[in-house]
């Protein structure tokens, strides 16, 4: 409800917003009247429903008389129910008990009634002199709930506390649970801000500063645009792309400064938002900003819900689009490779390892192997590309593979290590970065396509020349202490562990080779099957085209002498449609029994020999015609 100010009627505080919750400490009945009477007078004059809960020392009839002196026509307000003046027993207490939840609900019902009756809101005041010490904590909790929730509603609440009945601790509780406090000193009312409230306001101010900082720190291009396409505000990233400052962008027409046009382009999402009030997004390549952007707009409304513009966010997706184009090109290359694999005449020596193995499945397997053995493993192709890996040490990932020259040493070592190894064997090699590597080949159809790699490690008991590694750190600009610390983490493996591990990895490489080759053979078989199925389908289509249009009788039979096909020409001799013939034998079609024996004899010979049989015969059709076949 922030921003909707109401007259408080109290000179020292002036206008206050809805959601104001404050208190006064009084010492006399006159102190109460001096604050509460003008407070309710302002509420009545500003169309607010008013509720005054009285208690000692100001009784209900005294409160009415005091207010009537300031509001001569008070009876009119009382008669139409705009103000109630009631004792604490009618609001705070029920049979002498204070129930915080019941009182909160009663306040909520009063507000609902006020809105339903057309009042602008609810103005309340309660004198808390009735409160017993035993209920103090319960009431303090109630006040805390009111203070935390009231800011969301059209309510103004004033709580009055008798100063002499409050201890120092209780005064602190009261001040903490209200936005500010009124207290009279030397005959003059003073306003005291709540420390908690002050901290909250300071936090809100800091949040606003943080928002400004975030607004300018975000790399996306952000602009606030009004309904006339004027720029209200832009962040630094947007201004920088436009070659100016955020201040100079204010008031410019967005489509002129961004697109260089005299009217909004048809694809403009802000234009669509102004028509339907909804969020929109689109991808735009903007030459003036030298990039491709994902532009989204979200509606902005004022306090009355009226559309006043949009927040316009442009995310630079130029690199993503390039990556997508690269991915499409990669997919095209893979498709071409796949077509080559499916070709019956393809050669295996041009295959890429990544094209014939399931890399994620291999990664999962070597992850499990590493958990059991702590032996590093990698799967490399012949170009030195690492397809899967586990257990690589910091000295590799944070140093050797980062520096261009040492990374080149790594790749050269991987390629060198992969050469000249027979299937079922492994090769031990000290890399150019002074550590041990081992590899065994992965074969497909007799051609090496990669290697299972293990490293880098040192053998147990192998002395280390730390000066060589320190010299290497200085040569390549590594942090010497961190480099040596990473060196200390490199595994020390026994000869036995290496031999056992490589025996397993050689077996794994052999299985991988067989599976890869099996995948290729399966792909060939599927391709051949698809070719045969297509050819068979084409042949069947041609047969049906000829048979359906032939004047000759054409039928097919199974081994039980049932018709499995009959062309339209068969309908005449049989006196039935093709559908009525299919699935039946000649006997079931009530043909001449002697002829049936003759036909079935020849059918059996065809099934037995697989050779062509020719026969001549005549019979009387169902229409009584003699037919020679």
Report the strand count: 26
Gyration radius from CA atoms, angstroms: 46 Å
Strand order of the largest sheet: 5-4-8-9-3-10-11
**Structural class given helices, strands, pairing?**
alpha+beta
Shape: extended
Uncertain residue segments: 344-349
Helix content: 40-55%
**Share in β-strands:** 15-25%
The CA-CA distance between the termini, in Å, is 101 Å
Mean pLDDT: 81
Question: Topology, pairings included?
Answer:
Elements: E1 5-7, E2 15-17, E3 20-26, H1 29-45, E4 49-54, H2 60-70, H3 74-79, E5 83-87, E6 93-94, E7 97-98, H4 100-116, E8 122-127, H5 136-149, E9 155-162, H6 168-176, E10 180-185, E11 188-193, H7 195-217, E12 221-226, E13 231-234, H8 236-242, H9 246-249, H10 254-259, H11 269-276, E14 280-286, E15 291-301, E16 307-316, H12 318-342, H13 353-356, H14 359-373, E17 377-381, E18 386-390, H15 394-400, H16 404-418, E19 427-430, E20 436-444, E21 447-459, H17 466-476, H18 480-488, E22 492-493, H19 495-549, E23 555-557, E24 563-566, H20 571-574, H21 578-581, H22 593-609, E25 618-620, E26 626-628
Parallel strand pairs: 3-9, 3-10, 4-5, 4-8, 8-9, 21-22
Antiparallel strand pairs: 1-2, 6-7, 10-11, 12-13, 12-16, 14-15, 15-16, 17-18, 17-21, 19-20, 20-21, 23-24, 25-26
Structural commentary:
- With 629 residues, the protein is α+β, with helices and mostly antiparallel strands.
- Helices cover 46% and strands 23% of the residues.
- The chain contains 22 helices and 26 strands.
- A seven-stranded mixed sheet has the order 5-4-8-9-3-10-11.
């Amino acid at each position: 409800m922030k921003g909707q100010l109401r007259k408080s009627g109290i000179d020292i505080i002036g206008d206050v917003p809805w959601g104001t919750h404050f208190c006064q400490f009084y010492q006399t009945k006159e102190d109460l009247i001096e604050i509460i009477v003008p407070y309710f007078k302002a509420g009545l004059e500003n169309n607010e429903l008013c509720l005054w809960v009285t208690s000692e020392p100001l009784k209900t009839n005294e409160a009415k008389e005091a207010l009537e002196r300031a509001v001569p026509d008070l009876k009119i307000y009382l008669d139409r129910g705009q103000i109630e003046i009631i004792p604490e027993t009618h609001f705070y207490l029920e049979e002498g008990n204070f129930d915080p939840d019941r009182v909160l609900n009663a306040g909520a019902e009063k507000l609902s009634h006020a809105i339903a009756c057309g009042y602008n809101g609810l103005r309340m005041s309660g004198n808390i002199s009735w409160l017993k010490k035993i209920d103090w904590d319960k009431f303090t909790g109630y006040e805390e709930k009111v203070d935390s929730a009231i800011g969301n509603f059209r309510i103004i609440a004033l709580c009055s506390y008798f100063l002499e009945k409050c201890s120092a601790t209780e005064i602190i509780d009261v001040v903490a649970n209200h936005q500010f406090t009124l207290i009279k000193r030397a005959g003059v009312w003073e306003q005291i801000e709540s420390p908690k409230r002050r901290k909250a306001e300071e936090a809100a101010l800091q949040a606003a500063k943080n928002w400004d900082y975030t607004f300018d720190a975000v790399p996306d291009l952000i602009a606030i645009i009004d309904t006339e396409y004027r720029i209200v505000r832009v962040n630094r990233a947007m201004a920088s792309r436009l070659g100016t400052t955020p201040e100079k962008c204010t008031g410019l027409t967005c489509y002129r400064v961004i697109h260089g046009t005299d009217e909004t382009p048809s694809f403009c999402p802000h234009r669509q938002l102004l028509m339907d009030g909804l969020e929109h997004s689109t991808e735009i390549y903007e030459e003036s900003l030298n990039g491709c952007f994902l532009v989204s707009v979200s509606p902005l409304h004022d306090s009355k819900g009226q559309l006043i513009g949009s927040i316009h966010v442009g995310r630079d997706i130029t690199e993503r689009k390039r990556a997508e184009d690269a991915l499409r090109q990669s997919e095209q290359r893979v498709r071409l490779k796949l077509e080559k694999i499916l070709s019956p005449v393809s050669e295996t020596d041009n295959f890429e390892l990544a094209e014939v193995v399931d890399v994620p499945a291999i990664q999962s397997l070597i992850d499990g192997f590493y958990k059991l053995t702590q032996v590093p493993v990698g799967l490399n192709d012949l170009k030195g590309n690492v397809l899967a890996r586990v257990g690589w040490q910091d000295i590799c990932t944070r140093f050797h593979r980062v520096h261009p020259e040492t990374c080149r040493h790594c790749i050269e070592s991987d390629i060198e290590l992969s050469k000249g190894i027979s299937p079922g064997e492994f090769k031990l090699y000290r890399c150019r970065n002074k550590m041990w590597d081992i590899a065994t080949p992965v074969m497909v159809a007799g051609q090496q396509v990669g290697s299972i790699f293990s490293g880098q490690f040192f053998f147990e008991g192998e002395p280390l020349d730390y000066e060589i590694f320190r010299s290497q750190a200085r040569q390549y600009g590594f942090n010497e202490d961190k480099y040596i610390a990473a060196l200390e983490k490199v595994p020390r493996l026994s000869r036995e562990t290496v031999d056992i591990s490589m025996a397993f990895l050689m077996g794994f490489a052999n299985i991988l080779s067989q599976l890869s080759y099996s995948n290729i053979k399966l792909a060939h078989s599927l391709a051949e099957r698809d070719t045969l199925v297509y050819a068979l389908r084409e042949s069947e289509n041609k047969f049906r085209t000829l048979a359906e249009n032939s004047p000759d009788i054409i039928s097919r039979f199974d081994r039980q002498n049932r018709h499995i096909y009959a062309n339209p020409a068969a309908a005449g001799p049989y006196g039935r449609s093709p559908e009525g013939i299919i699935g039946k034998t000649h006997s079931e079609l009530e043909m001449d029994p002697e002829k049936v024996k003759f036909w079935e004899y020849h059918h059996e010979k065809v099934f037995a020999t697989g050779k062509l049989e020719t026969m001549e015969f005549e019979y009387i059709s169902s229409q009584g015609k003699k037919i020679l076949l």
